[in-house]
């Protein structure tokens, strides 16, 4: 055993019985081994060696007679004394005494200790290989996870960077858009589309706020001018009366007082309309609905403007003459709308013109009535119809008269009609007249 754990030594007799061995007795499980492989090894060795006549003569006593079938190619395997059904590579040599064969020295190559050590080494190698494979697999998995993480987060990074870039955009002059296209239709593309839609709405609202602000500035400028004119005139005549009152004749004093009263009335009318429009736009107006005889209301409003219409020889008619409809509405606000429309019609209708107040059932179920005010005036350009309800807007062909107008009548009328859950509509042709109409809900027929 000094040669190392790779060798196991056994001494067997010529019949294969194990006589002695260099091993722990508890580990040897065979008592006999097959001698055929031993004879085959010895025979191959003799046949392969170049023997001198003296060596051949000295080995004549060795029994090397074996079947040719036992002479096989290397390696030749022999029985393993430590295993009942296992063979191993071996080496053997004959043991002679006085030239007579006594037995064989049987040596197992790679013995049990060697196998145990090699198995431990292999186990360690397998563990090392397994550890390397596991480390490589873990590294590959981490790379794949990083790739997947990059794949999923790259679009989010693009979206985040695009949104951050919006802070540097000029919202007044540029159209806001992420300008991102995902590789396929997925949730991220839906997010991009939703953000672009939201940006479009923000841009639209921003533009509307700019337009409203611009309209507010123009309105304030116009109203300031309109307020300054009667106020300056009123102040001038009052100062004249104050400074030269005793030097003025009674006729001049009366004339100045009349002019001052007229300017004060115009100033009060303008201020009242400004407050009325402000309350309407602020949603601070409530309706006081009651049962109203529509025919009586229309005739009362028409009668209020008879003198003013007669001054221009304008005829005001009601169609049908017997307007027996009952409605449920705020009589004060409805009268205000009709008054604004008739006053506007008289102002833009030339002499010998015609103004018609008509009422007709407008819906198929007969529950709604259409109230219309039609004149034979100068009409309005088609491209200006969408602007006439803006505060202080004046049509390009509007006629001036001697009275002051704030230009808020149609804007106020539109806001009042919207309180009735309707819209003030307009139809017009140049030189043929204009027709304003809106709807109210009928309650019953009187």
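Sequence proposed for the structure above (446 residues):
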């Amino acid at each position: 055993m000094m040669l190392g754990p790779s060798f196991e030594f056994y001494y067997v007799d010529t019949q294969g019985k194990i006589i002695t061995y260099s091993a722990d007795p508890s580990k040897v499980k065979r008592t006999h081994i097959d001698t055929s492989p031993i004879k085959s090894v010895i025979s191959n060795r003799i046949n392969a060696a170049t023997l001198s006549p003296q060596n051949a003569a000295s080995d004549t006593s060795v029994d090397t007679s074996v079947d040719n079938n036992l002479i096989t190619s290397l390696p030749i395997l022999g029985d393993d004394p430590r295993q009942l059904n296992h063979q191993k590579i071996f080496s053997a040599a004959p043991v002679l005494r006085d030239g007579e064969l006594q037995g064989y020295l049987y040596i197992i190559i790679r013995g049990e200790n060697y196998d145990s050590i090699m198995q431990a080494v292999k186990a360690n190698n397998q563990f090392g290989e397994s550890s390397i494979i596991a480390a490589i697999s873990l590294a590959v998995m981490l790379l794949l996870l990083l790739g997947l993480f990059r794949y999923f987060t790259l679009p989010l990074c693009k979206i985040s960077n695009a949104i951050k870039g919006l802070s540097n955009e000029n919202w007044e002059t540029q159209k806001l858009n992420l300008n991102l296209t995902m590789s396929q239709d997925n949730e991220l593309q839906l997010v991009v589309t939703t953000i672009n839609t939201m940006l479009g709405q923000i841009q639209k609202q921003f533009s509307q706020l700019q337009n409203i602000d611009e309209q507010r500035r123009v309105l304030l400028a116009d109203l300031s001018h309109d307020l300054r004119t009667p106020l300056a005139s009123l102040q001038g005549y009052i100062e004249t009366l104050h400074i030269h009152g005793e030097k003025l004749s009674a006729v001049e004093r009366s004339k100045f007082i009349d002019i001052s009263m007229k300017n004060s009335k115009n100033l009060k009318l303008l201020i009242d309309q400004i407050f009325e429009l402000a309350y309407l736009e602020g949603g601070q107006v409530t309706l006081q609905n009651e049962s109203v005889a529509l025919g009586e209301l229309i005739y009362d409003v028409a009668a209020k403007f008879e003198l003013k219409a007669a001054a221009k020889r304008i005829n005001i008619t009601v169609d049908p003459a017997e307007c027996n409809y009952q409605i449920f509405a705020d009589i004060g606000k409805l009268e205000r709308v009709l008054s604004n429309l008739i006053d506007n019609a008289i102002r833009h209708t030339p002499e010998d013109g015609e103004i018609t107040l008509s009422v007709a059932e407008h819906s198929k179920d007969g529950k709604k009535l259409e109230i219309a005010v039609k004149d034979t005036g100068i009409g309005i350009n088609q491209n200006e119809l969408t602007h006439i309800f803006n505060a202080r807007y004046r049509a390009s062909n509007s006629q001036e008269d001697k009275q002051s107008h704030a230009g808020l009548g149609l804007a106020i009328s539109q806001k009042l009609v919207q309180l009735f859950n309707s819209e003030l509509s307009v139809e017009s042709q140049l030189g043929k007249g204009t027709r304003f109409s809106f709807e109210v809900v009928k309650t019953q027929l009187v």
